[in-house]
Amino acid sequence: MKNSEFVNQINTYYPLSEETIKDLLDICTEEYYNKNDLLLETGAMARYYYFLKSGLIGYYTIDEQGDNIYKIFFEESSFVASTAAIIKNEPSDFTIIALEDCTVIQYPAKAYRELLEKHHDLALFHMHYLEKNWVVKKEPLEVSLKYETAKKRYLQLVENTSLYNRLKQHHIASYLGITPTQLSRIKKEIHEDKY
Question: 136 or 178: which carries more pLDDT confidence?
Fold first, then answer.
């Protein structure tokens, strides 16, 4: 079946019936974004959900100084959206950008929400997904943003080798909420700690 990777990923949260899968795939299109293309811009209405087949996506907001502050990065097999903006039907506070060339499965939020009401199994997938990714994963992230040092958060990021190796230094600095110079200092300290 086409988009089996997409369906398999959904089924890890909650198994869908054939009918639900068919209805869901009917509203999906496969789209290609070049590196640095915006999937969504801050201030725009969030009209789509995305499933990342290949590539790397960043999710950032802009601070008072006009700098990009990266909140999260998405690798392959991730579901990506400005979820709060979709739920509230308000313009997004975040920009979603392709950090590499990306292939995504894109589906309109409005049609998807109609399917959630029609298909109980899809609604259960959505609920399980949100619980796991927006509650369970997000809370420790918010605690770490508040209390952990940039050095400690950097070391945690380094542990995720596949993601770390794909990020530019300015993306990492932005994600940690520090300047590239401060990042260089942290890396130097860590290097010195090892030897």
Answer: 178
Q: Give the helix/strand (H/E) hosting 48.
A: strand 48-54
Tokens matching residue 120: 């109980």
**Do the beta carbons of residue 106 and residue 57 sit within 8 Å?**
no
Residue 27 to residue 46: CA distance in whole angstroms: 16
Answer for the pair 79, 85: CB distance below 8 angstroms, yes or no.
Answer: no
Name every residue whose Cβ is closer than 8 Å to that of residue 159 and which is 6 or more positions away in sequence.
none
End-to-end CA distance of the chain: 52
Burial class (CB in 10 A: 0-12, 13-18, 19+), 29: exposed
Q: How confident is the model at residue 142 (pLDDT cuts 50, 70, 90)?
A: low
CA 80/CA 11 separation, integer angstroms: 17
**Surface-to-core class of residue 96, CB atoms within 10 Å of its CB (0-12 exposed, 13-18 middle, 19+ buried):** buried
Q: Parallel, antiparallel, or unpaired for β 29-33 and 57-62?
A: unpaired
Q: 38: which strand partners?
A: 97
pLDDT at 1: 44
3-state secondary structure of 112: helix
